[in-house]
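Could you help me review a protein record that somebody else here produced? Here is the record exactly as it was handed to me:
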Amino acid sequence: MVSFTKTVVAMTMAVTSAFAFSGDMTYYNPGLGACGWTNGDGDAVVALSPSKSGNCGRQIRIHYNGKSTTAKVVDKCPGCGDESIDVSPTVFDQLANRDQGRVHVTWEFI
């Protein structure tokens, strides 16, 4: 029974990690985030919608226009849609031109 439970938990984590979300990406100037850490514009960080709470410290991989980068979850974004994300300027710059302001991305937990 213990082995079966461990297998189910491992499979659930693998499926969750492999599930891609799709939404808008915007950028913001981080400070003291909802997770209790202080970050700045140069840190690779992300804020998720409140529906994704409980993920402080997890890493996500973001994909846009053939490029990808990673960011650490440090904040929540009350104005974000369920699968949209708000990233630090340094993360946005790695994927798109800031003049665009908002782009559609896919992302997943890693």
